[in-house]
Amino acid sequence: MIPNLLSIAGSDPSGGAGVQADLKTFAALGCHGMAAITALTAQNSRGVRAIHATPPDFLAAQIDAILDDIDVAAVKIGMIGDAANARVIAERLAARRPAFIVLDPVLAASSGDNLGGAGLAREIMSSLLPLVDLVTPNAPEAARLTGLPAPDDIEGARRLARALMSAGARAVLVKGGHVPGEMARDILIDANVETIFDAPWVETRNTHGTGCTLSSAIAARMAHGDTLVQAVGAAKNYLTGALASSGDFHVGAGPGPLNHFWRLWPRE
Length: 268
Fold this sequence. Notes:
By secondary structure, the protein is α/β, with parallel strands linked by helices. The chain contains eight helices and nine strands.
């Protein structure tokens, strides 16, 4: 049976990140994707021009419409937009409790543009962090959530992951894309195990939607029955392939999208 996955995230009209990246990832990994839109953005490969957050009651209606009717195997939460929407998401998911929830705490776009309103980081920590099964911040996001310095090595990333666990997280994956080193190193910590995932750096300018893609791939693999360590490893491999083949795309003047269908589309 094909699993049903729900993305709760913002819309990227350029197709590189947000629900557009999530739905592509779900499809590429054998899942049926659905989306509840938290915000509309006006953006392209060069940056974000405007954000219109979805009214909380309408976001709640979207989530309820899906969960009232459809068996959801996993939920991915991405860009939330503001604190009010974070509270709504927490309330709706706590009442229904899907089997697996991953939170990618999107606080800024790849371009550096801010994607979180006032109080969002605090609301994530209080409402969503204890609810989700996995949180997947990059190093700057983890630093912003915890108030600790951004790391410059794996030990710093480990401290951030431990701080998030102490704050109530069930499992934390601190991504190493912003941490210098010979390899891109992600660290996964839960109550029982610590695992480090190494991957080679991929030379590409097309990195728009990298975090969205990784968290969605983890959700997809969990829906197919992987353990958390297996799901993160498989998602990392998928992401590396999507980055390595992203040069096939020439979308805009800034960082372009990944090739989400690199396993399915023939290459010239």
